[in-house]
Amino acid sequence: GKDVIYVVCTNGDKGTSDPNMKPDELAGIREQEQIAAANTLGVSEVIFLRHPDQGLEDTPEFRKEIVRLIRMYRPETVVTADLGRRRIWHRDHRITSQVTLDAVFPYARDFLSYPDLMEEGLQPHKVREVLLWGAEEPNYRTDITGTFDTKIAALLCHRSQISSIPRTGWEQRLRERHRMLAEGEDYELAEAFFRVEILW
Description:
Blueprint: E1 5-10, H1 23-41, E2 45-51, H2 60-73, E3 77-81, H3 91-107, H4 115-119, E4 129-133, E5 140-143, H5 148-156, H6 159-162, H7 167-181, E6 190-197
Helix pairs in contact: 1-5, 2-3
């Protein structure tokens, strides 16, 4: 019974192994795939910021975009990537994590941060918790046994990203990963996060 809002920060216009694909064409495909996946999951709304893929930077302007959305939608929980991962992974994920965490605290909370947002009627907002996905040392798990097939259906919407990978292989690996995350629990499959409760 929760409303879920997706914020997609980049347009994905470089994520392809097809040498004949044009960036504008790919960006349009990625956006439609994201909408289809969100509809599969029952997401309430998808917001596209459309920054160029591989081009995110930790700037006051980008941070302000995220602060504006936090103040506008006033979420209890924000989900973003875990900044502390030690493995090589996409730079845009790292930058998004850093900017989002800074936006949550202290910028979205503090009255004197971005005072022009106050003039737009966007009052400060305190997020209650942040869930960091991809955490190497998660401290919070949730049962996805009954929704795993829906997750697979949503992933299948991203055809431009997975069409070259045999489905049986990655689906089995994903199921096994979520089974390992559920070890010690009384259910089969888990999604795991590092949960940060914001107390101030």
